Amino acid sequence: MKKILIVLATACLAVACYAQKNPCNPEGKPYAQMPGDTTIKLASGTTLTFNRCEFYDLRDCMEITEITDTVGLRRAGMTMFDNRGNLLLTGGMFSISMKDCGKTCFDIPAKVRMRIQLQPCANGALALPNLYIGNAGTWEKPADIPTKIKEENNERYMEFELPCPGIINCDIPQRGRKVKFIAPKGHKIEQLRVGRNCPLFFVDDYFSKPRRKHKVRMLCLGTNMTELQAVLTTPGGQQTRTPFLKLTNLKTGRKQVNCKEPKRSFFSRIFTWGKKTKGNLFNKYYLPAS
Q1: Backbone Cα Rg of the chain
Q2: Residues 160, 57: contact at Cβ < 8 Å?
Q3: What are phi and psi of 58, to 5 degrees?
Q4: Reduced to 3 states, what is the DSSP secondary structure of residue 270?
């Protein structure tokens, strides 16, 4: 009997301690009536501020992840193109997932102070970035989330309120240049992945009807850090997968694309046909058979 009383006393003490630690007791009140915040600071310097009680209730089912490389993009099912076909130079990216939380949006919007940190190998550092939300593998600008750009201690931040979880990206759009990839004669491209980590770029195109040639809009930067992998269909109908290949190791076409100059019009090309410029990209790249 004494042992039972000791066990009961210990259990009651544990419940009392839990009640003291739980900021949302007593339950039943809306989060708006329970003041206080919980701020999470990510490795990049970005901070996310939640209602204290809402965060407490979501802490075991909400997952926050920063995306910094092509592996993270592939896991998230994202590329670096917006819904208008623009390339994006990221200044910071993270995802919030609430798959098993029983709701799809926050009761109290999260306050985000996103540090704008373009990679040192990227161009366009002085341009103002935009906020993008991931949607079905591409990015789109949200019309209902106003943003503010602030500067503090020579660092730039984008501030906004996030009503729902998702994949968040702070980007500068770039047009880039289209490059053609060509499979060996008789082969067709079924899937093509092209990516690099600095600046972060990734595209993963899959074709239900394989084709021999495919164009990809590329960043106008050096190609020594860009890698690709292709899934090809052979003339006999078999599927082969190439190893990861550096773009610089592929056979190329003769023409180079000068990314530093704006794309010339038809008449400009006629009157300056003799002008030769060197660029970072070739207009064509030939894929190996395997």
Answers
A1: 25
A2: no
A3: -100, -5
A4: helix
Write the burial class of residue 153 (CB in 10 Å: 0-12 exposed, 13-18 middle, 19+ buried): exposed
Distance, CA of 270 to CA of 274 (rounded, Å): 9
Amino acid at 226: T
Closest by Cα among 68, 118, 70, 112 to 91 = 118
Alpha carbon distance 99, 101 (integer Å): 6
Rounded to two decimals, the pTM is 0.76
The CATH code of the domain at 34-174 is 2.60.220
| Both tokens assigned to 3 | 């042992």
Q: How many helices (H) and strands (E) does the chain have?
A: 4, 21
What are the structural domain ranges in the chain? Answer: 34-174, 177-286
Q: What is the DSSP letter of 81?
A: B
Which pLDDT tens digit goes with each residue over 202-252? 999 988 889 999 999 888 776 778 999 999 999 998 999 999 999 999 999
Tell me the three state secondary structure of residue 239. Answer: strand
